[in-house]
């Protein structure tokens, strides 16, 4: 059997667990650590696929839950799978829909068999099982597909986390069995277990026993204090095999990216850069900036002096502020483009710093310039 | 004094008044007849300026009323005028704001001095006079600027049209006197007069006496029957000098473009292509198409088989329909791009047909293919 996704370790940073590698996929090679822009509904919000290419994105994420409800996986499959449907020649990862379904707290019911829920679009009753989700993800045709898992909220009782973890591990096995295209799509398992280190270890070991082509760490950045998240991460990654990619789900603030990379994570995704962009907030080398503020009304400098992206080379803060205030689509196009560029560029710099064994020094420089003090408000939108 | 805008006649079509020419401006040469995309708030909705260039747009229109209210002409001026502010290297035309202000029927009061109105954004009281509008348009810095005029609705009494026309003609004189940058920006007069041919003639002759660098025909496509519009147009254009550009304001459906060109018009503008695009309606060589319709759910053909624009070469109807249904910005980006391409391409074909003395034949071919039957519903969104 061909292995569709393979991890290649290039260099391990001195003094940290940060590692420089490559993930080989059927749709190209991904230099890691990598940030994956999120294209929930088969489009990274506001962006054309050629703009993602221009920014150097090699992999994007899309959402099984949303695509199942609209347009439906049958349409996507007939359109050539996600790659053909949205005309994206790079790699794609689909989540399992679990996170979205469990967020519908009023609308769903979980059993060991799966999860019953109602569509947020038309209220119609639906059911996700490991088997049905594999069917959907096989039809969507992403290079990397995620198992159905349960992502518990924070805080949750140990008892609940215990039961939930057993379910997630049982679902991993069922997903592996149901996966119909294992030589074309790589199934990743998801390590859950909340803040309990023993549960995390148990989850990692059980999933490793399944010999999957990659592993994700889920259930973090769901409300817990950052130091706790970093502790769980540092504890968990060593239980994951060094020859497989490691993916930290739903994480994408600059500080979390640094802290994740430092603890050995290879892949990240988050809606943060595009979501805050639509509110007019942009990342800059000197911290975040809320462009709608009146102080930028007559500011004819680029949005980030240190950035060489097309937006920063072309437009002024005053113009983009005007577009945002006037609710013109071009405004959120430009802020989205810049924010994705910012994170992709940041990852490229991290990769270089790992190669040069100066990752920690680079992190300190960045935090100093960014004005990061460890407060949650510093980095979230 | 340098003349900022000059018309060059290249060829007059046999059998019709259609003419092939060039308008020379401080920001490039415009091949005419031309359709000008509308960038109301210093952005053609959803489009980046490089996309307009890619589509071959050489001139766009922007709105004095909107830019005066937000961000204010002072900001635009400090940003380098409209060209610098929005980073558009082609030519720009600004309307006078008259049309928008008179559309605020509940909020404005007209006197010979000017028009008092309230901002639609914050309700603040404002006043437009010929002098203040020239001040604003001089600050915005477009290549072509329009006089303040009154655009009466249809139907209107002859008495009202008479009074209104006198005011518009008096305002034209005052605009010419107040215009502070006549060697950098070309002031165009606007012929009003409703459906009354004698008033149209009087207006045209009075404006020609002012020796302005160009003339517009206003007050058409405001609800009157199409045959009446074409009759007024056919009657009026011969009273406008052959060595100056002629601009038919607010007109941009394919049939109106053909009928206008046939009667000797050189320039057109309309929000139609971008407005219907945002509703998911696109122009095709075989007529308009409402992409949200269920029939396109599994239609994996391009939105227009006969179109060679980037959207038609890249995406399917099914994908764009999905984006529109999911309210994704990329959807209206793609339909806007295609619709602007469609009209710019149509004008290019008209120009070629004039050069080859087969304009009327081309019009017939297009109407046959488009399925145009002369009903208003055929062409409006």
From TrEMBL, chains A, B:
Keyword Nucleotidyltransferase attributed: no
Binding site for Zn(2+): 307, 309, 312, 338
Catalytic reaction(s) noted: 7-aminomethyl-7-carbaguanine + guanosine(34) in tRNA = 7-aminomethyl-7-carbaguanosine(34) in tRNA + guanine
Cofactor info, note text: Binds 1 zinc ion per subunit.
Region (RNA binding): 250-256, 274-278
Enzyme Commission code(s) on record: 2.4.2.29
UniProtKB keywords: Glycosyltransferase, Metal-binding, Queuosine biosynthesis, Transferase, tRNA processing, Zinc
Positions of the tRNA-guanine(15) transglycosylase-like domain: 16-370
GO molecular function per UniProt: glycosyltransferase activity
Residues annotated for substrate binding in this entry: 95-99, 149, 192, 219
Pathway involvement of the protein, from the record: tRNA modification; tRNA-queuosine biosynthesis
Active site, renumbered: 95, 269
Entry cofactors: Zn(2+)
Keyword Signal: no
NCBIfam families: Q_tRNA_tgt (TIGR00430), tgt_general (TIGR00449)
UniProt subunit comment: Homodimer. Within each dimer, one monomer is responsible for RNA recognition and catalysis, while the other monomer binds to the replacement base PreQ1.
Function: Catalyzes the base-exchange of a guanine (G) residue with the queuine precursor 7-aminomethyl-7-deazaguanine (PreQ1) at position 34 (anticodon wobble position) in tRNAs with GU(N) anticodons (tRNA-Asp, -Asn, -His and -Tyr). Catalysis occurs through a double-displacement mechanism. The nucleophile active site attacks the C1' of nucleotide 34 to detach the guanine base from the RNA, forming a covalent enzyme-RNA intermediate. The proton acceptor active site deprotonates the incoming PreQ1, allowing a nucleophilic attack on the C1' of the ribose to form the product.
Family of this protein: Belongs to the queuine tRNA-ribosyltransferase family.
Protein name: Queuine tRNA-ribosyltransferase
Source organism per UniProt: Alicyclobacillus fastidiosus
């Amino acid at each position: 059997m061909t292995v569709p996704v393979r991890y290649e370790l290039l260099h391990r940073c001195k003094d940290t667990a940060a590692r420089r590698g490559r993930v080989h996929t059927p749709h190209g090679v991904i230099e890691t650590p990598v940030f994956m822009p999120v294209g929930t509904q088969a489009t990274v919000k506001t962006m054309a696929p050629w703009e993602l290419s221009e920014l150097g994105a090699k992999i994007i994420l899309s959402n099984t839950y949303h695509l199942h409800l609209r347009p439906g996986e049958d349409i996507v499959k007939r359109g050539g799978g996600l790659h053909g449907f949205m005309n994206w020649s790079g790699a794609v990862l689909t989540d399992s829909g679990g996170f979205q379904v469990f967020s519908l707290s009023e609308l769903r019911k979980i059993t060991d068999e799966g999860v019953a829920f109602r569509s947020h679009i038309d209220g119609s009753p639906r059911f996700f099982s490991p088997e049905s989700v594999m069917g959907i993800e096989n039809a969507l045709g992403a290079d990397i597909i995620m198992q159905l898992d349960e992502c518990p909220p924070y805080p949750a009782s140990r008892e609940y986390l215990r039961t939930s973890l057993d379910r997630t591990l049982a679902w991993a096995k069922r997903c592996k069995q149901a996966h119909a295209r294992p030589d074309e799509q790589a199934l990743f398992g998801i390590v859950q277990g909340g803040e309990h280190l023993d549960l995390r270890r148990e989850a990692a070991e059980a999933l490793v026993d399944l010999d999957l082509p990659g592993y994700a760490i889920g259930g973090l950045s769901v409300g817990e204090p950052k130091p706790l998240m970093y502790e769980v991460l540092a504890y968990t990654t060593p239980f994951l095999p060094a020859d497989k990619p490691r993916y930290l789900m739903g994480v994408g603030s600059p500080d979390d990216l640094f802290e994740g990379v430092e603890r050995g994570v290879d892949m990240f995704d988050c809606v943060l850069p595009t979501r805050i962009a639509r509110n007019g907030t942009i990342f800059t080398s000197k911290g975040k900036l809320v462009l709608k503020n009146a102080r930028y009304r007559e500011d004819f400098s680029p949005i980030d002096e240190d950035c060489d992206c097309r937006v920063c080379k072309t437009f002024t803060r005053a113009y983009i502020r005007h577009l945002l205030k006037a609710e013109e689509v071009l405004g959120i196009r430009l802020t989205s483009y810049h924010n994705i560029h910012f994170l992709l560029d940041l990852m490229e710099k991290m990769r270089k710093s790992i190669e040069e064994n100066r990752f920690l020094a680079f992190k300190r420089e960045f935090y100093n310039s960014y004005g990061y003090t460890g407060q949650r408000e510093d980095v979230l939108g």
